[in-house]
Design brief:
Length: about 950
């Protein structure tokens, strides 16, 4: 068995070989074997260097090797000593060898001794011999040249752009590896980026720069910015001076100075794929939906695209998935990272090490005349606010979502739906008609008085079908033809880029309807009106959507498409769904699979596509389907699966992509492997590992995934699920008639009053949810009907409740509801509500049902009940040893996070770290099982 040192050397040998180095023993040295040779145990005056790097027979660098798990940050001084040590016979490029590496098989750090302030940095892999050869022939290093950048040429730049460029120069001169530029939509972020890219190429000698865009059509827009940019000191266009490639295939132009692409295509190229479907580049990270974070996309060294391939990576419109799903892809390159965004979230600041070099808000942009401001016009209708009820015996239409086939049906029971279900499970044409009619009648009286031409308007729809309904009604209400109103979505029959160009530059279309395709990034300056017929729960995404209207345009340019507009002094948000009032999360959601049908999704998973986005999407759809099943449906599914329910299928899929479950499984795998070898588990005294390795993680993910997907191998089950799913399609309510309750421009309220109103809205929605589902969701049934029962609610039931709440009201998170109660009834709220603890839902439900006088964080309640139980035991003469106390505390903490302690918990941390069930049995003897049951009874609430 290899020692940790030997295993690390084996890995380092392989990493050097991947980068093009020929690895040799010193006694077998053959410098003529290739341009780059890495020699093990190379003798120096300070002793043998672990590896000496020679290029064209000359020493250029040193690799200091350490065992796996060794921290490398303190090893740089040792490497520097070998770099300066004398060697016999060998030629050197310099007395002080310029290139120093530290490696332990898992990490590599690098420093260039020629930099003004040499500082080691993490790198994905070793640099190739030809790269080091090129660096030794350059005059100065990149970091040295960054310190001598000339002053910014200010001609033709806005003040905010000048400030951004100057601040970025300072950051780069200080060798800050990451920098974030926040500039309001419409203030010229891309122009600013092209400006600093020009400076980095011309004055800092950057070899190549990667420009990552949010989706494909923004790449085309970015390419146009480069083509239109005129060099301030030269007069020629950027693309006349330097080659710029917008990747539409996986073939890289090696002479291009700038590469524009999406991170999805970049990942495909790093994986060595010859082709990539361009359709996968057309969805923005801002529009993505779902709750659970994914495991990062992992990459391996690719000789065709080595880590030194780019000196700078520019990330345009940084969204959340950049930092959790794609982070390793970004960190693959040995490059400075520069982020551009109009709407940063907390993760954005964290990823860029809090190095915000420019902050230019929309409010400031409006004052400076760089953006236009907005007015909000609200339209509230009865059905939007309250939903509707259609009596049994009424005729409604049903539409199959996949085939769009429609059929009439007579209701056997009353059809009751809420406003949140509109255009998702039920569509009511008269509700859409009522909103659009009010918008039309207000256009030239209240919204744009004195005008006659419909201003360029963008309508946000909930789905592709919803967009079709809107397009048809807009054309009908205005009495116009097809050119007047167009749908621009991923499902559009016409070319989306052509439609966007016409919407931007031509008289028609006057109205565009989209779901999400032009909600972010797309520049449509003549746009004067945004009509929201869908709510948005992400603050960042909503800000991006509003940003479509903020762009300024000259009166002459506006007149070419809207001749009676005069000047664009503002834009109007028409809010027909309460989007400006609804609770927003600070972060964006992560990916969902837009446009992939249920049947195709099932088939993809059965074929082995176990991408986290696929599994998460299927879990969400199955959970939604489970809410609609009839008893006969449930029985049929359980017969086919051998007893597994649809809810259990969904839960297993969710487990497979849930990092908490993955971590627990990885710890279990690592502990089992270590104990089988007679070794301590990771984290235990004497273990060489602090935590499970990537291999343990991989095994864990594979095990959870196999458990989740194996039943979908059965074609009969897939057919059954597809059939059942098709039975629960969109209901078209032609019976209900809507009416406008209120319409007008919003009145300004104080921030405090607005926050209180939002909090009240959260609480009211939560209480309404409990009332509506008290007889359907098991946890609510138990808490509502047996408020003081012990052990009545299981953790699985709480997870079911949380999932149901998320499906009905994505904006209602446990922490958000908790914060709302804290704002409204602060004196009655005790303890914080940690977002990771689903058990707090029990406290929230009990408080909402008025079963408790105070809202107490569930863990705090468990602590108090544990203290009371211990006191009662002591009073009864029952005492516990110090070790027993430790075990009891672990059990208490498990109850706080999972409601109970079960037998399988003893096979997982922290219990297994202390010896597992066997040790617990020794500590407590025959009373263990009775004690666990007693503790569960006493601590649960």
């Amino acid at each position: 068995m290899l020692t940790p040192e030997q295993h690390a050397r084996q890995l380092i040998d392989a990493q050097l070989a991947l980068a093009g180095w020929l690895v040799q023993d010193y006694k077998q040295i053959n410098l003529g074997a290739g341009a780059g040779v890495a020699v093990r145990e190379y003798p120096t005056d300070s002793g043998p260097a672990d590896y000496a790097l020679l290029v064209d027979r000359k020493l250029v660098g040193i690799v200091e090797a350490k065992r796996e798990g060794t921290s490398l940050t303190a090893v740089a001084e040792q490497t520097a000593r070998y770099q300066a040590s004398a060697t016999k016979h060998a030629q050197r490029v310099a007395d002080q060898l310029p290139f120093g590496y530290e490696a332990n098989g898992q990490e590599i750090r690098f420093a260039d001794a020629r930099d003004p302030e040499p500082r080691s940095r993490p790198v994905f892999g070793f640099h190739r011999p030809e790269t080091l050869r090129g660096w030794t022939r350059q005059i100065g290093t990149l970091r040295a040249r960054l310190r001598t950048l000339p002053a910014v040429t200010t001609a033709g730049l806005r003040d905010c752009q000048i400030e951004a460029l100057r601040n970025l120069d300072v950051s780069l001169k200080d060798d800050r590896p990451r920098a974030l530029i926040q500039m309001a939509t419409g203030s010229g972020k891309t122009f600013t980026a092209v400006s600093f890219i020009y400076r980095l190429i011309k004055f800092a000698g950057a070899k190549r720069i990667l420009f990552l865009v949010d989706r494909g059509n923004l790449g085309r827009q970015t390419l146009q910015e480069f083509q239109q940019y005129t060099a301030p000191d030269d007069g020629r266009k950027f693309t006349e001076l330097y080659n710029v490639q917008h990747l539409t295939s996986n073939q890289l132009d090696t002479v291009s100075k700038v590469t524009i692409t999406t991170i999805q295509r970049l990942y495909s190229m790093l994986r060595g794929e010859a082709e990539f479907d361009a359709g996968n580049e057309e969805r923005s990270g801002f529009e993505l939906n779902g709750e659970a974070p994914q495991r990062p996309r992992e990459v391996a060294y690719n000789p065709a695209l080595p880590p030194e391939g780019y000196d700078f990576v520019v990330i345009d419109e940084c969204h959340r998935s950049i930092y959790n799903v794609w982070q390793q892809v970004l960190e693959y390159f040995d490059a400075h990272l520069i982020g551009l965004t109009a709407t940063p979230a907390k993760q954005t600041f964290g990823f860029f090490n809090q190095n915000l070099v420019m902050e230019y808000s929309h409010e400031r942009a409006v004052v400076d005349g760089v953006n236009v401001g907005s007015d909000v016009f609200r339209i509230e209708t009865e059905i939007t606010a309250q939903g509707s009820r259609v009596e049994k015996g009424s005729a409604v239409k049903r539409m199959e979502r996949q085939t769009r086939k429609r059929r009439w049906e007579t209701l056997d029971d009353d059809l009751v739906y809420t406003g949140t279900q509109l255009d998702r499970s039920v569509t009511t044409p008269d509700q859409i008609r009522t909103v659009l009619t009010k918008w039309k009648s207000s256009l030239f009286t209240e919204l744009f008085p004195g005008r006659e031409i419909v201003p360029k308007t963008l309508i946000f729809a909930k789905s592709d079908h919803h967009a079709d309904e809107i397009v048809e009604l807009v054309r009908e209400l205005f009495g116009k033809g097809n050119d007047f109103c167009k749908k621009i979505t991923y499902g559009s029959d016409e070319n989306a880029d052509t439609l966007i160009r016409k919407f931007r530059n031509e008289y028609n279309p006057r109205v565009a309807v989209t779901v999400d395709m032009i909600s972010t990034g797309t520049d449509i300056k003549p746009l004067e009106c945004l009509l929201f017929l869908r709510d948005v729960r992400s603050r960042v995404y909503f800000d991006q959507m509003k940003g479509r209207g903020t762009r300024v345009i000259s009166p002459s340019d506006l007149e070419t498409v809207t001749s009676d507009a005069g000047a664009k002094t503002r834009f109007v948000i028409v809010d027909a769904v309460g989007v400006t009032d609804s609770v927003k999360k600070d972060t964006e959601s992560v990916e969902r699979l837009g446009g992939l049908g249920f049947e195709k999704l099932l088939h993809a998973v059965a074929q082995g596509n176990h991408d986290p986005a696929q599994l998460r999407s299927l879990a969400t759809r199955l959970a939604r389907l489970d809410r609609q099943l009839t008893p006969d449906d449930r029985a049929a599914v359980q017969t086919q699966t051998g007893g597994t329910t649809v809810q259990q299928l969904a839960a297993r899929l969710y487990d497979a992509v849930d990092p908490v479950r993955q971590e627990a499984e990885a710890q279990r795998v690592a502990a089992a492997e270590a104990h089988a070898a007679g070794q301590p588990a990771p984290g235990e005294p004497g273990s060489a590992l602090d935590e499970p390795t990537d291999a343990h993680w991989q095994q864990a993910v594979e095990a959870l995934t196999e458990r989740a997907v194996h039943l979908f191998d059965d074609p009969a089950l897939r057919t059954l699920l597809t059939k059942v799913h098709a039975q629960h399609d969109l209901i078209i309510d032609l019976v209900s008639q809507d009416r406008v309750l209120a319409a007008g421009f919003e009145s300004r309220t104080s921030p405090e009053a607005a926050q209180e109103a939002l909090a009240r809205q959260r609480v009211d929605k939560f209480q309404a949810f409990i009332e509506a589902h008290k007889d359907e969701i098991t946890a609510l049934q138990l808490l509502h009907n047996r408020p003081y029962a012990r052990r009545a609610v299981t953790f699985a039931q709480i997870r079911e409740l949380a999932l149901a709440l998320r499906l009905d009201h994505p904006e209602l998170t446990p922490e958000g509801i908790w914060a709302a109660y804290e704002q409204l009834e602060k004196a009655r709220v005790r303890g914080a509500g940690p977002k990771t603890l689903l058990t707090n839902l029990i406290s929230l439900v009990r408080f909402a049902l008025h079963q408790t006088e105070t809202l107490t964080a569930y863990p705090l309640g468990v602590d108090e009940r544990f203290g009371a139980w211990l006191a009662a035991q002591q009073q009864a003469g029952r005492t516990f040893t110090e070790e027993q106390q430790r075990w009891l505390t672990m059990m208490k903490e498990k109850v706080a996070t999972s409601l109970s302690v079960e037998a399988e918990d003893f096979t997982m941390p922290p219990f297994v770290d202390q010896g597992g069930y066997a040790r617990a049995k020794q500590v407590f003897g025959a009373d263990l099982n009775q004690l666990v049951a007693e503790l569960n009874e006493a601590l649960a609430a």
